[in-house]
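tool_call predict_complex ligand=zinc ion
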Amino acid sequence: MIKITLPDGSVKEYPEGTTALEVGKSISEGLARKVLAAEVNGQVWDATRPLPAAATLKLLTWNDTEGKSTFWHSSAHLMAEAVESLFPGVKFWVGPPLDNGFYYDMDLGDRKLNEEDLALLEKKMNELAKQNNSYTRKEISKNDAVAYFTEKGDEYKLDLLGNLKDGEITLYTQGGFTDLCRGPHIPATGVIKAIKLTNIAGAYWKGNEKNKMLTRVYGITFPSQKELDEYLLMLEEAKKRDHRKLGKELGIFTMDDDVGPGLVLWMPNGTIIIEELENLAKETELAAGYKRVVTPHIAKESMYLTSGHLPYYKESMFPPMELDGVKYYLKAMNCPHHHKIFAAEPRSYKDMPLRLAEYGTCYRYEQSGELFGLMRVRCLHMNDAHIYCTREQFANEFRAVNDMYLKYFKIFGIDKYVMRLSLHDPAKLGQKYINEPELWLETEAMVRQVLIESKIPFVEVPDEAAFYGPKIDVQIWSIIGREFTLATNQVDFAQGRRFKLEFTGKDNAPETPLIIHRAPLGTHERFIGFLLEHYAGKFPLWLAPVQVKVLPISDKFLPYAQSISEKLKKSDIRGEVDDRNEKIGKKIRDTELMKVPYMLVVGEKEMNEGKVAIRRQGKGDTGVKSIEEFIADATAEIEERRAE
Ligand SMILES: [Zn+2]
Ligand SMILES: [Zn+2]
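tool_result ok
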């Protein structure tokens, strides 16, 4: 008998040779149908492989990341089978899973694939999937494997075999197709119910441009047609929501060749959003005890030598300019400037924590190939702050920063987020990480504790911390499921020392403060790019560049419309009158396109009664009210920063 420990801690006994799939069946047939792979003693295995004598076992389904990637990798094999049956003689390189789907690189000789070929391949894959062929694993000696692929004439697989040793070589076969692969794979092809081949591209063998160009076919598969349909709809929606497209249509931002690549020009509408975000930040930070500062965009070389940005970060900075024989750099980060403000006056423990905030402008050199809309730019405005605190204050300060992130997520309707806590590797202390073993453990433990207590979902990533302390990256997902890395929250116990920052402790001895770097709203560039896609350009009232459009039914009502616009202005509501000589239907359509939250339609009846007919963006008529009533409602909506 073998002993299997399940995730709930229970231990069950099974006869020798039992597979994970059979364990699944012993629990329920329904579960067994969903099993794609298994985690056996921490390793992902085929669900059809006999289990070892003692194992902890987790059955993996579509809901598990590893389940999905096994599904997609197995789909790559299925695609290869279809390719081989349609284009005999094809040779295969590798076919890994991706975050969404899979690809396979192949050598098709002189044949170029086109869209029609993809359709044929999809059809063939569907046929093969329906045969529900098992993926069978076979251990094979190196000699036999070499003989097999020599016979097949596949020099790419022979190249892979060159790096493998006897005892670690396996072949997998499904239907009529056999591949050299370490696995694991799903039990059989039948669970692949929906298939879409998405793209054909060229890819140099081993990524080296001196090598032959192979054909890379991308695809994605799902366990149901419904999920594929939803995925395709999401892609469609993502295209419509592209922040570069919306940014242009809504007059948010532009770029100009003469200004330079990656340098964003914020248009009046974008600037309104920027100001609203800054108001939110200022309000929130003031309430949380921050102090605002303003610092220059440049600094002398000597400061960046102290901070260590030079020479280590030099490639990400703009080249220096020389003035009176001294080199100056555009700042890539605000921290050193803030440290100088800390150092400008003598500090005691009574001044701590000191929280310095600035929407700081930074310049970073991103390669032109890396530039992308608002997401990767060369000039950025950061919702930055540095908190200088004592060790005793650290946990509370860190908790308050986290609470601020959560407050913002709520305002912006961000329901899905994960924090990645990057930790140090003790083996690399003194090289990759500053040599402070105790401080590392202490701060990491405090950060972990805060994350657990705040019930924030988080994952721990070993060996990815910053040089100077543990780091928390915040990943968020927009409404349509697009992932963004928004901001980092970092603990720093190196910079304080580099800058010789000190405060007088309770016992009158000088101490070095701990520093928290935080930027919950990230940069204006990335955050507004995110918001454009998140809201599909339909900003909530408080953020909308134009909040209300007054639409007179004809010129006769223009003076009344203008009097309304005046009243809106007096109440700090951003309103405009559509004074064009157009039909009301067109005025409404155009305003909808500009995604203005409220339209006030005014004609004879409204004018005589001192009222407005209200239309809400995307919702149509919502009734008639007096202008005072409308202003009171809208003001409340704005002040509460309501989502709608
Ligand atoms: Zn494989
Ligand atoms: Zn910083």
